[in-house]
Amino acid sequence: MQPTWRVLSYRIAAEGSRHRVAIWRELRRVGAVSLQAATWAVPVGQGFDEAVARAVELVERAEGTAFIFDVIPNEATARQLESMFAAEREEEWSEFLTECDKADAEIAEWTRREKYTLAQLDEEEHNHERLRRWFRDLRAKDLFGAPSSAEAERRLKESEATLEQYAERVYVARQSP
To answer: What is the pTM of this model?
Structure first.
């Protein structure tokens, strides 16, 4: 059975971009697919429905009008929507992988310099917490299984292992007189 999609279309005043950007951010955060200006599609379901409701609130704050349609697309349109949705997740996974590489390169640089400080470890732990949150968010909205999701999970685990090795080096350095 094909998933039901929710289409949100809205009208707001043309002047000022603040409201338009806020709506755009809310819909992008959940992975909605832009069909054209002020028209978005998102699968129906937990997380997605809440984002549409928040976007509608933003439209109403802008004194605009929102139109919501629940649709069951024909097979060709469903494939096209799923493809667009998955392609956008693939872009996000690709960016995520780049950030994992950057985190590992940074730790490699601190290791090369033998910079084993608690402050640096704290910064790297915050970096990895951001990566973990990002991974959870991406996984939650990757309904159609973008190709890089498995690689992203593997890279996150590797990056966390690199962080643990660095933490061990910081610990050892702090114990040495």
So the answer is: 0.87
